[in-house]
Every structure is written in C-alpha cells, then in structure tokens.
Amino acid sequence: MSHGLRVEALAAVSLLIVITVALLSATTRLSPRRTDDTPEFYKSQCLSCHGDHADLKFDEKLGDDEQVKIVLKGKLVDVPPDMPAFEPKGVTPEQAKSLVEYMKQLRKTATTN
Ligand code: HEC
Asked: Would you place residue 29 in the very low, low, confident or very high pLDDT band (cuts 50, 70, 90)?
C-alpha cells in the first residue's frame, strides 16, 4: 500500500521535473530574442529608454558609425541608466545599423505628426 503511494509520489515529482525542464528550454529557445525583427526588437529592448519616436536620449547628429558602435558597445552616462551594450546580447553590426535607421525613421514620424 504505502509502496504504491511512494511510486505515485515519485511519478508526480518526475512529471514536475519534466515539465520544468520543458518550460526552461522553451524560454531559453526564445531568449536570444528575434534580433532580426527590428521594430519588434526596438519595442521590447529600446523603447523604454528611447521612447515611441526615438525622441529620448538619441542625438541624430552623431554619425551612423558612432551610433552603431554605441548600440554594440553601450555608452556610460553621468546620470543612470546607461546605454547597455547589445553586442553581448547577440546583436550584430548589421542589426545595429538597421536599428539606428529605424530610430531615424521613428524620429521623422515624430516631427511630422
Ligand atoms: C536602459 C536604457 C537604455 C536602453 C534599454 C537602450 N538605450 Fe540607447 N541609450 C541610452 C542612453 C542613456 C544613451 C546615451 C544618451 C546620451 O549620450 O546622453 C543611449 C544612446 C544610444 C544611441 C546613441 C545616440 C546618442 O545620443 O548617444 C543609440 C543609437 C542608441 N542608444 C540606440 C539604442 C538601441 C537600438 C537600443 C535597443 C536595442 C537602446 N538604445 C536601448 C539608454 C538606453
């Protein structure tokens, strides 16, 4: 009798472990986020600091190369939060460039509206 219970408990625990592992692997599969989808990526990773129209903390007068470098390497500022480095998060120079282009587009929509 008690033996049967122990088997059931063991089965329940194993099931929990299987579910946990499955959930964990599902989240890690998602976690290098879809850096190829620029608008989505901007929304999830950049918008909170740079705003709907890239109107915050974004100096368009910096050259493209400088901006791409800042996206990849980050930038320390006097008053936190700093600009995080996105290269360690899997963003490539091409993706950084397309993010910078996208921010300029957003900026334009801000001034025409
Ligand atoms: C935690 C806040 C934060 C997040 C998130 C963030 N940034 Fe920044 N970003 C900053 C700060 C702060 C600066 C520096 C602004 C300054 O020089 O005063 C900056 C600077 C920049 C610059 C250079 C322009 C400038 O004026 O210095 C670019 C380009 C940029 N960010 C793009 C991005 C992109 C693309 C993302 C998302 C992948 C992103 N940022 C996410 C805070 C953030």
From this structure: very low
Give the ligand 1 atom nearest the CA of 103.
35
Please give the tally of structural domains in the chain. Answer: 2
Whether residues 80 and 99 share a domain: the answer is: yes
Q: What angle do CA 103, 77, 96 make, to 5 degrees?
A: 30
Q: Which of 8, 31, 27 is nearest to 16 (CA)?
A: 8
Domain that holds residue 5: 1-31
Residue 23 CA to ligand 1 centre (angstroms): 32
Ligand 1 centre and the CA of 29: distance in Å? 26
The answer to pTM > 0.90 is: no
